[in-house]
Amino acid sequence: MACGGGATGISDSQAGPSPAVLKDTSPSQLTVFVAANMGGYDATTRDKTLIDINIQHGGRPVKFVAGEQITCNDVVLKSFTGSFEIEFRTASIAGKAMTCVYRSGQQSGSLTVGIPQALVILAPSDHQQVHHGSGTTVRYTGARDTNLWVVALSPNAKAVAESNQITTTGATLDTSALGIGDGSIALTDPSNFPLTEIQGPRFQSVAGSARRMTMVAVVWT
Q1: 12-24 b/e with 16+ CB inside 10 Å = b?
Q2: From CA 3, how far away is CA 71, in angstroms rounded?
Q3: Are 163 and 187 in contact (CB under 8 A)?
């Protein structure tokens, strides 16, 4: 869901603070939080990264009314109340420094964001036939540590790698209970982690977080 779409099923009492409309929207008035959601659980999203740049003043989202704009890697972001959003091909930004520029009239401020490496499953490969059993191995790159979710699915069951069977380069799962047929293997960061390589000296403050996920489709035999 796009940032501007709003959440469904939220009552007025649960809504966040009302947007602020500022006369001065120069960078020094703004706090910035960058959220990077890298990958997904299907073929349409797993190679994409969604970047949200959330802008606040005094803890309230800022409603921009004077043509304020952000570009990242020279691409103009879509504007919503309190945020700007863009989708990139993950391979084009993963492991690299992304440069963004915020403009408000004659004022501007730059952001530099270090994008993490992507999670990539090396084996099994997409659509590979995989024998289900007690020692199914998964190999991957991009893990920050061994705190990962490694999950195998079949039409009738799920298998999850135990923590002592996960390393930074691979995991072993017991997939004996999985049924024969189409399935998948997914790799996910269990929670958001801080973006430590982020700079924006002209803003009040800058911070960010990322979460990564990927999957391959397999056929269990």
Answers
A1: eeeeeeebbebee
A2: 17
A3: no
Give the number of residues written for the chain: 221
**How does pLDDT run across 163-214, given as a tens digit for each residue?**
999 999 999 999 999 999 999 999 999 999 999 999 999 999 999 999 999 9
Q: Where are the domains of the chain?
A: 19-117+192-211, 120-188
Q: Report the predicted TM-score, pTM, of the whole model to 2 decimal places.
A: 0.88
Q: So what's the architecture of 19-117+192-211 in CATH?
A: Sandwich (2.60)
- Quote the tokens at residue 185: 């293997």
